[in-house]
Every structure is written in structure tokens, then in C-alpha cells.
Design brief:
202 residues, alpha/beta, Rossmann fold, 4-stranded parallel sheet, two-stranded antiparallel sheet, globular
């Protein structure tokens, strides 16, 4: 590896020149992004002799609504179970995300990644024709959007209206975040490998 640029000629990959802070798991170990991130969170809490607390994970600047770390963990688990049980999503499916930023987005992403779903996000300001093209390219089986952005899916030249669509600001979706108590249910996960595709970005 070049000590000045971090470039490895053999793998054709750039590596960070900063000091190593975390020990990454071996690439062959099955591990989803969600498992890895949440393991760091739990490890940090354990080293501080505490549980995953109610300290704030995110704040909606417009409304002041807060999402605590404990709620993030609980709601991610509940949503992952709901997506498998009620939407029959499975590893390798593509989920298209058409939504502005909200507190539900990280929960949705972590839930989808925990069950091996490939995420394909897009800019809500994209045109209907661009959105149609992206969905047709990535072959999304489900679309997550908001009531404010859903009109972009109505394109006379496409069949997007027939795709499963979930409004993430609907009462039905919000109920999925708390439907399952993580002490009573377990997500039956497909094995998610570190080499699996996680995101399709345009």
C-alpha cells in the first residue's frame, strides 16, 4: 500500500491513512450493516456500564421531535419483522425510497438492511420520468414514499401504479414501528453477507 495515497495496487483500492479506530470483522463473516452498527452501539453502552439509553439519536429540526437510541433499536426490529411478515420481503429484493429526510428514514434503512433488502434511494425533486426510469432499471418490488411525493409515481407511460407502495408518513406505517415487541419476536433473517449488494444509487 502506498504510504502517501493509501492506494493498494493489488486490490486497486484506496485505504484510509488515518489511525485505525475500530477492528472490522473479517470480510467472510456474515454480517449486515444493521448488525454491525447496532453491535457498536451496544458495545459502547457495555463499556460504559450502561444500557442503550434514552439519549437522543436524531432530532427533527422543524418539529423538535426526537428519536432516542432505544426507540431506534426497538422500532427497527419491529419494522423488520413487519416487512417480512406482512410484505413478504426477502433477501435480494430491491426497495425504492422516494422521500425527503425524516426520522423514519434511518429506521426504514436499518430495517431493510437487516433482512438483506437492497435499497435504491432517489431525490424527491427528480422528475416523474427519471423516477420511472430508475425503478424500471433496478426492478424494485416495493416503493416507500410519502403522501407529498407519491404523485411522482403517476406516470402514464409506466406501470408503477401496480407496484406495492407504502406511505411512510401514514398511520399504517407508523403502527409497524411498534407492532412487535422485540422481547417476544425474532426476525427470521436470511444470511446477509458483507459482500452482498446493499444500495443502488443513481
Amino acid at each position: 500500500m502506498d504510504p502517501y495515497s493509501g492506494f493498494c495496487l493489488q486490490t486497486r483500492t484506496y485505504h484510509s491513512l488515518r489511525p485505525k479506530i475500530l477492528d472490522l470483522p473479517p470480510p467472510s463473516q456474515p454480517l449486515s450493516i444493521t448488525e454491525y452498527v447496532f453491535s457498536i452501539l451496544r458495545r459502547s453502552a457495555s463499556s460504559a456500564n450502561s444500557t442503550v439509553s434514552d439519549s437522543t439519536f436524531m432530532i427533527n429540526a422543524a418539529t423538535g421531535h426526537r428519536l432516542a437510541y432505544s426507540d431506534l433499536l426497538r422500532q427497527t426490529n419491529s419494522l423488520a419483522i413487519s416487512l417480512k411478515k406482512h410484505y413478504s420481503l426477502s433477501k435480494g429484493d430491491v426497495a425504492f425510497i422516494l422521500s425527503p429526510h425524516s426520522l423514519q428514514i434511518p429506521i426504514l434503512y436499518f430495517s431493510l438492511h437487516s433482512i438483506g433488502i437492497i435499497i435504491s434511494p432517489t431525490n424527491p425533486d427528480d422528475s416523474s420520468s427519471d423516477i420511472t426510469r430508475q425503478i424500471n432499471l433496478n426492478k424494485a418490488v416495493i416503493i416507500f414514499t410519502t403522501s407529498q411525493s407519491s404523485h411522482k409515481l403517476i406516470n402514464p407511460t409506466s406501470n408503477l401504479i401496480n407496484r406495492r407502495t407504502v406511505l411512510i408518513n401514514s398511520p399504517e406505517f407508523i403502527s409497524l414501528l411498534t407492532r412487535y415487541d422485540d422481547n417476544k419476536y425474532d426476525v427470521i433473517n436470511d444470511v446477509v453477507n458483507q459482500s452482498d449488494v446493499a444500495v443502488i444509487i443513481y
